[in-house]
Amino acid sequence: MTTNAAQPPRDRALGRGITTLIPQAVTATPAEQAAAVLAGMQSVPVRIGVLQAAVVLLEERVRTTEDDAERRAAATTVAMLRGAIGQAG
C-alpha cells in the first residue's frame, strides 16, 4: 500500500514564496519592501474593501509623513490601488 506525501499547508508555501520577493537586507527600506510585494502581488485577487481601506490609510500617510521617499511610495501605491479598484468595479 502506498500513501501520498503530505502536502504543506497552502498558506505556508505561499508565505515562503512571498518572502523571497521581499528584500530582506538590513538596508532595504519599507518603501523598497512594499514595492517588491506589490510587484509580486499584481495578479493576486483581493477584496475591494481591503483595497479601499488601504487607500484611506495610505492617503493619510501621504498627508502626514515628512519623508519624501515614503510620501512618493505611498502616493504611487494609492494610485495603483485606485487603478485596481477601477478595473474591478
Model description:
- By secondary structure, this protein is mainly α.
- It has helices spanning 10-21, 30-41, 48-64, 68-88.
- Helix 2 packs parallel to helix 4 and helix 3 (48-64) packs antiparallel against helix 4.
- The protein is globular.
- The termini are far apart.
How is this fold's topology laid out?
Blueprint: H1 10-21, H2 30-41, H3 48-64, H4 68-88
Distance between the termini: 52 Å
Order of helices and strands: HHHH
- Unreliable parts: none
What fraction strand?
under 5%
Helix count, DSSP H or I runs of 4 or more residues: 4
Q: Mean of the pLDDT scores?
A: 76
- How large is the radius of gyration? 17 Å
Structural class by secondary-structure content: mainly alpha
What's the overall geometry?
globular
Brief summary of the model shown:
With 89 residues, the protein is mostly helical. The protein has helices at residues 10-21, 30-41, 48-64, 68-88.
Task: Summarize this structure as a short list of keywords or feature phrases.
single chain; 89 residues; mainly alpha; 4 helices; 70% helix; 0% strand; globular
